[in-house]
Amino acid sequence: MSLPRSAALALALTLPMVAGIGPAFAQKSSVITALDPDKDGTLDLKEVQAAASAKFDALDPDKDGTLDKKELKGVLSPKLFKSGDPDMDGTIDKKEYLALVEALFKDADPDNDGTLDAKELKTKPGKALIKLIK
């Protein structure tokens, strides 16, 4: 017995969402795919820090080794900027940037397994982390 055409179409459109391969998953999965050299489907801290280091360099067009609020506009909220600038000099150097990345990584890893999967990257700290690495 075959399904009516409309039921078959509905099933075809719904199945990917139920299976977890809908648009939101694909978006987060692409972050993992792009930054996962060992292809294990997760990001560990070393992979995240490598991506963060490259992102820092890209955000530092004047190559002065620091990022100010203007250079980080749209990347960091004012609250995160403040927490990433412990010496309160109005800039974030690479060491401070990587420390902030590590803190967000730990916040996004509630199971403490040392890796982030697509689901963990969908959390608030995971989304903030993505802005710092991609």
TrEMBL record:
Q: Which residues form the EF-hand domain?
A: 47-82, 96-131
Read off the InterPro entries from this record. EF-hand-dom_pair, EF_Hand_1_Ca_BS, EF_hand_dom
Q: Which SMART domains match?
A: EFh
Q: Where is the signal peptide?
A: 1-26
Keywords of the record, alphabetical order, are:
Signal
Q: What is this protein called?
A: EF-hand domain-containing protein
